[in-house]
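Sat 14:20. Reprocessing the chain from the morning session after the first attempt stalled halfway. Input below, unchanged.
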Amino acid sequence: MVWIGVYSGGGTYVEQVEVAKDCMIVGYSAATTIIQSPAVLTKGWTTSTTNKPVVYIHDTANVVLWDLTVDGLGLGNANYRFIGIGFRNAVARCTAATC
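Finished this time. Tokens:
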């Protein structure tokens, strides 16, 4: 297995993150590296309805989120089935993260 490391400095990133490969996403610290939900989430999966995660991890076996915060910004009321971190056919681990 080859690991892909994504290292991020402190900052606020407004985006929906999709992960479909084994990787490690490492922030500077949970207090300073923040992934915030955009107003519209376009990616997700459907069960009885569409699930919309801010961080969407799917079809992979080894993902690590480390030292970061996922913030929904209170947008759950506008997005039915809103999820901070969503897993579909995946194995992942959050470590020292505020999820």
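Strands lie at 4-7, 11-14, 17-19, 23-26, 33-36, 45-46, 50-66, 69-71, 82-95.
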